Amino acid sequence: MESQRIKDDDDAIRAALTSLKTATGIPVTMYGTLHSDNRIQITQWIGLRTPTLQNMFIDQGTGVGGRVVTTRRAVGVSDYTRANVISHEHDRAIQEEGLHSIVAVPVIVQREIRGVLYAGVHSPVRLGDKVIEEVAMTARSLEQDLAINSALRRVDGGKGAAKSGRVMNSAEWEQVRATHSKLRMLANRVEDDSLRKELESLCDQMVSPVRVKQSTKLSARELDVLSCVALGHTNVEAAEEMGIGAETVKSYLRSVMRKLGAHTRYEAVNAARRIGALP
User: Fold this and answer.
1) How far apart are CA 179 and CA 184, in angstroms?
2) Are residues 74 and 204 part of one domain?
3) How many domains does the chain have?
4) Mean pLDDT for the chain overall
5) Domain HTH luxR-type: where (predicted)?
6) How many CB atoms lie within 10 A of CB 203?
7) Same domain, 136 and 189
8) Domain boundary among 154, 182, 210
9) Domain region containing 118
10) Is residue 246 located within the same domain as residue 149?
11) Residue 218: which residues within 8 A CB-CB, separation 6 or more?
């Protein structure tokens, strides 16, 4: 059972690293597992040029990752060895790898930090807000994948997972999300009220296994807009998909962000997923 847990979670982490690298073009993505002694160990990576950082341990409070664990917040530096917001115990390892800019985000499941998601570049460039948002969004998606894995393992003491042999990996869960969004768009184009309600009901059933009590009520149109945003659509693309104006899409997004207390469209998607409104 323990080996299956590790495999399931490793699959989700690997898919998250690959997805982040593909979405941003960032050359290096890493995941650090938080151990019981509050030390991080870099356990998975993509794009490292040297073995220096592979499987390296990082003490709580040290470097970028250690500061993330201490503050439970994202930390980014544009010039690692000169940054004054972190300690510099790991400068030699960072220099040997040749990393320059790094951003790290906590991965929190059931209020406990499970690990740290990293993105970095070897060239002297600053990681923009778009990249940082993408790292944060990937971390939130990974949190959901890890939470789902844990929930499925708890069913009947693990018997539920054993019957199927395995749980969905991150790529499969992303397919569920895409299907959910497409179903909402299909329902949006259906003129028959009863059929549209049936399709919307199917959408609700897709998120019901991870739904929590929802104190914020989002309208069907607001969920449609969020579904488009979750697929990476721009406002114009969402407007074309939904058959409405781009300004109307903006209006729905403003309403959603106000209801969910989000500052960006990506935060709104993550908040909607946390309350079970999106898969």
Assistant:
1) 9
2) no
3) 2
4) 83
5) 211-276
6) 24
7) no
8) 154
9) 2-154
10) no
11) 226, 256, 259, 272, 277
Same-domain check for residues 82 and 119:
yes
Identify the sign of the CA torsion 255, 256, 257, 258. positive
C-alpha distance across the termini of the chain, in Å: 26
pLDDT grade, residue 212 (50/70/90)? very low
Instruction: Answer whether residue 125 is part of any domain.
Output: yes
Please report, as a single letter, which amino acid is at residue 175. Answer: Q
Type and span of the H or E element at 232: none
> Comparing 188 with 98, which gets the higher pLDDT?
98
**Residues 241-261 pLDDT 10s:** 888 888 899 989 989 988 888
| Mean pLDDT confidence for 184-195 | 82
Contact by Cβ (8 Å): 260, 271: yes
Kindly state whether residues 119 and 213 are assigned to the same domain: no
Alpha helices of 49-169 — where are they, by DSSP H?
63-71, 91-97, 129-154, 159-164
Q: 3-class SS at 98?
A: coil
Of all helices (H) and strands (E), which one includes residue 56? none
Q: What's the token pair of residue 229?
A: 């945003």
Give the pLDDT of residue 96: 96
Strand partners, 117: 31, 105
Q: How confident is the model at residue 59 (pLDDT cuts 50, 70, 90)?
A: very high
